[in-house]
UniProtKB/TrEMBL annotation:
CusB-like beta-barrel domain mapped to chain residues: 236-310
Family under the similarity heading: Belongs to the membrane fusion protein (MFP) (TC 8.A.1) family.
Organism: Edaphobacter modestus
SUPFAM superfamilies: HlyD-like secretion proteins
NCBIfam families: RND_mfp
Domain spans labelled CzcB-like C-terminal circularly permuted SH3-like: 319-378
Keyword Coiled coil: no
Transmembrane segments: none
InterPro entries, sorted: Beta-barrel_RND_2, BSH_CzcB-like, CzcB_C, MFP_Cation_Efflux, RND_pump_MFP
Keywords: Signal, Transport
Any one GO CC term of the record: membrane
Name used for this protein in its record: Cobalt-zinc-cadmium efflux system membrane fusion protein
């Protein structure tokens, strides 16, 4: 009996062992994968080595003073108040061209010479009028002497005085006309003395500056209404921009602006708006603004492309470095630190630029840390891990 009981006990133990084994096997099949394994399959997460984590710059977004700004395309242009459009007050034919485009000229310098029959005709009339004036003056003096000698009556003296007045008026009128034709007082006085006509007329620059345009050619006949040369003083130029109507409400004269010219990348020029147009262009729906830009060395050239940034009053804003931002599918992301060596890519909303920083509108909670520098390389590593995981 004892033997049977022992055998039965051994059988019961064996059956129990088999049951436990099957139960363990069944549990192993139905038990889900550990949470850690699932986390590694998250395509937005990446775990790095402790050594690599030390090389990343990690920290919280920070508050700083940010000036509101608006950026628009602009251009360098000539100062309209420093431009001279020069022509000839008399009709004539160009017989000499004395300057080229781009050449610097001084005020009063000769640009060209033209031959004008209109000028010579007026000079002839002036010389004739001055001769008549002298004859009338001499006749009046003789009449005064004869009246004193009771040889001539007063009526004749008054007639000669009237002739003198008429001759003087005509001479004065032609003198004024010659001045209007561009002859100087010295040249008119010389003509009156020498009585030698000169039909060659010099076209002179009215300002000191650079010849921007030469619109005449040798032998060309020009009229008084035509522009022969355009000369500009480029020691001061304008930076002109067209601001969209919807952004024009913030503009005001004296507003701080910064100019950046792509052709001169090392220069950020600060200044103030000198003009804000009082009207909106009905076609482009823009408002024109400009800034005066001193140009003593001539490095800023008309028609250069530029960018104009308008700066408003500063505000305290949450910012992150531009190096923290990852751009994916036209969206902005940052890497948020989940654990000391684990990071997750998260979409954020960003505002305007402020130097090398971007304003953080939303996406990161207070106290959370992000990768401030190195996000680009970390994102490349994340993509490589995702490719390997897919294989």
């Amino acid at each position: 009996m004892k033997t049977v009981k022992r055998t039965s006990s051994l059988a019961s133990c064996a059956l129990a062992s088999v049951a436990v084994l099957f139960a363990a096997t069944g549990c192993q099949k139905d038990t889900p994968a550990p949470a850690a394994a699932k986390a590694e399959q998250d395509p937005t997460a990446i775990t790095v080595s402790a050594e690599l984590a030390k090389q990343l710059s990690i920290g919280e977004p920070r508050m700083q003073d940010v000036a509101g700004s608006l950026q628009v395309a602009a251009r360098v242009d000539t100062d309209a108040s420093r431009i001279a459009r020069i022509g000839s007050p008399v009709a004539g034919r160009i017989i000499k061209l004395l300057v080229l485009e781009g050449q610097y000229v001084h005020q009063g310098g000769a640009l060209a010479t033209l031959h004008s029959t209109d000028l010579s005709d007026t000079q002839f009339s002036f010389v004739k009028a001055t001769s008549q004036e002298k004859l009338a003056e001499q006749a009046t003096l003789r009449a005064e002497q004869l009246v004193k000698a009771d040889v001539m009556g007063l009526a004749e003296l008054e007639r000669r005085r009237a002739e003198l007045l008429q001759a003087s008026t005509e001479a004065s009128a032609f003198r004024t006309q010659l001045g209007g034709l561009g002859m100087s007082d010295a040249a008119i006085h010389r003509l009156e003395s020498t009585r030698k006509l000169n039909a060659d007329y010099p076209i002179l620059s009215t300002i000191s500056g650079t010849v921007l345009e030469r619109k005449v050619t040798l032998g060309q006949i020009i009229q008084p209404a035509e522009i022969a040369f355009m000369v500009a003083d480029l020691s001061n130029v304008w930076v002109i921009a067209e601001v969209p109507e919807e952004s024009s409400g913030r503009l005001r004269k004296g507003m701080d602006v910064t100019v950046r010219i792509p052709a001169l990348p090392d220069q950020d020029i600060r200044g103030k708006l000198s003009y804000v147009s009082p009207i909106v262009d009905p076609i482009t729906r823009t408002v024109q603004v400009r800034m005066d830009l001193p140009n003593p060395h001539g490095i800023f050239k008309p028609a250069m492309l530029a960018g104009l940034t308008f700066l408003d009053a500063t505000e305290r804003k949450t910012t992150i470095p531009a190096t923290a931002v990852v751009r994916e599918e036209n969206k902005d992301f940052v890497f948020v630190q989940i654990e000391p060596t684990k990071f997750r890519l998260r979409e954020v909303s960003l505002g305007m630029e402020s130097g090398d920083n971007r304003v953080l509108e939303s996406g990161v909670s207070p106290g959370e840390k992000i990768v401030l520098d190195g996000a680009f390389h970390l994102n490349n590593q994340r993509k490589q891990n995702a490719i390997k995981g897919g294989e």
